[in-house]
TrEMBL record:
Belongs to the class-I pyridine nucleotide-disulfide oxidoreductase family. One of its GO terms (molecular function) is oxidoreductase activity. Its EC number is 1.-.-.-. Residues 7-321 form the FAD/NAD(P)-binding domain. Gene3D superfamilies: 3.30.390.30, FAD/NAD(P)-binding domain. Transmembrane segments: none annotated. InterPro entries: Class-I_Pyr_Nuc-Dis_Oxidored, FAD/NAD-bd_sf, FAD/NAD-binding_dom, FAD/NAD-linked_Rdtase_dimer_sf, Pyr_nuc-diS_OxRdtase, Pyr_nucl-diS_OxRdtase_dimer. Its cofactor is FAD. Residues 363-468 form the Pyridine nucleotide-disulphide oxidoreductase dimerisation domain. This is Dihydrolipoyl dehydrogenase family protein.
Amino acid sequence: MTQAVEYDVVVLGGGPAGENVVDRTRAAGLSTALVEAELVGGECSYWACIPSKALLRPVLARADARRVPGIAGAVGGPLDVPAVFDHRDYWTGGWKDGGQLDWLASIGAHMYRGHGRLAGERRVAVEGPEGEHLLLAARHAVVVATGSRAVVPPLPGIAGARPWTSREATSAHRVPPRLLVVGGSVVAAEMATAWQALGSQVTVLARGERLLPRMEPFAGELVAEALREAGAVVRTGVSVEAVVREEAHGPVRVVLEGGEILEGDEVLMATGRAPRTEDIGLETVGLEPGDWIAVDDGLRVPGQDWLYAVGDVNHRALLTHQGKYQARIAGAAIAARAAGPGGDAAAEPWSAYAATADTKALPQAVFSDPEAAAVGLTLAEAEGSGHRARAVDYDLGSVSGAGLYADGYRGRARMVVDLDREVLLGATFVGPGAAELVHAATIAVAGEVPIARLWHAVPAFPTMSEVWLRLLEAYRDAGD
C-alpha cells in the first residue's frame, strides 16, 4: 500500500481559485499541497482573461483614440498585428508557468505536477507526467478547483472541422481572413471585437435574439450595433446544424437551420462551458463524475465536512474574480476550523465565511467595443425574484465626462432600485471605458447603501462617474 504524504490542505487544480486557496491557507500557517496537470495559473492566465484582454487593449485604445479630436488622424491605420501578438505572448509568459512556480515556492507551498483524483475521504491520488503514482492525505480539507472547459456541441462534421474554442481564439498567431463565431455571450462578443479589428471578416451567429443575453437587453443591442459598424456581420435567432471542413487546410462551412451555408477560414464555437470533473474521482466520495459540484454558501460540499469546491467547478459564478473571492472565503473557513473548536466559521450572509456576493452582488465586465459592465440583478431578474423594482435609465453620452472622453460618445446606464427598501439591486453601464464604473456600483449593491446616502457620494467633475448623480436625479424626478 502506498504511504500517503500528509498535508493540512490539498488543493486539486492550480488556476486562480486554487492559487488563492493556497495563498490563504499558507498565510494561516497550514501546510498546503497543490496538484495541477497543466499550467499553474490555469485557464485565466493562459487562454482566457489575460490573453483576451491583451488582444483587446490595443483594439479598444485605438477605437477610443479615433474618437478624440487632435489624435484621431494619427491612429487611422491598421493595428500592428505582430506587435499585438507579442504583447499577448508576454502577458501569458509564453505559455510557461515558471513565475507561478517561483511564487508557490516563495510561500512554502508544495507543488505536484500531474493528474489528481480523489481517492476516498481526505485522499488525493496523483499520477505524474512519467506515470509515477503518489498518494496525498489532507488532515483538514481537500479543495477541488479544477475549473471548466469549453463545450463543443456534437454537431455533424464538427470533429473533422477542428473548430476553435476560447483557447485557440486567444492564442492563435495567424489572422484568419474570415472568422465565423457561433454563440452570443461574452466570449463571442469579445473575440468578435478583437478579430474584426485585427483584420478578420467576422460573422457572429447567435441562437438567441440578442448578444449578451444575461445582461440588460440594451447591452447586447449596443454591442451588436458597434460590431456591425466595424464591418462584422451579426445575425441573431439562427441555429447551426452542422460544421464541415472537407480538406485539412480548406475552408470551414457552417450549415444553418433551413440549409443556408456560410463559409469561413476558421469557426469559433463560443457555446458554453462544462466542469472539469469527469476524471477526478468524484465517484469515490459519492458524487457523479462529469457533474458540477454543488456547494453551500460556505463552499463546502453538503455531507462532506472536509470537501470544498471553488471557482467554475461549482457553477455558482463562472468568473475568475468570483472564483478568487470564493477561494478567499474557503481558505478563511478552513483555517478557522483547523484552529479547533473555538474557530468560528459560520457561513452567515456577508460574513467572512459565506460567498454571498455570488447571488447578491456579482460584477462582470465585457471588454467589447463598447464595453458592457453590470453588477447584481437586471430588472427582469429583480421582478422575477419578487422585488417591487424600478429601472432608472440615463444616456451616458450626455454626461460631461463621457463627452470629453470621446466625441459622439454613445452609451447607456441603468440602475435597478428596490422601491421598498430604497437600495440598489443592480446596475448596468454600456459605453467606451464603462467597465471602470462597475466597482462603484458593486460597492453600492453589496453595501446596500440607501439611496438617501448615495446623494452624499459626490462624483468628481468632469468624470463619467457623474452619471451616478444623473441617475439619482432621474429616480427622484420619477417619484414626484
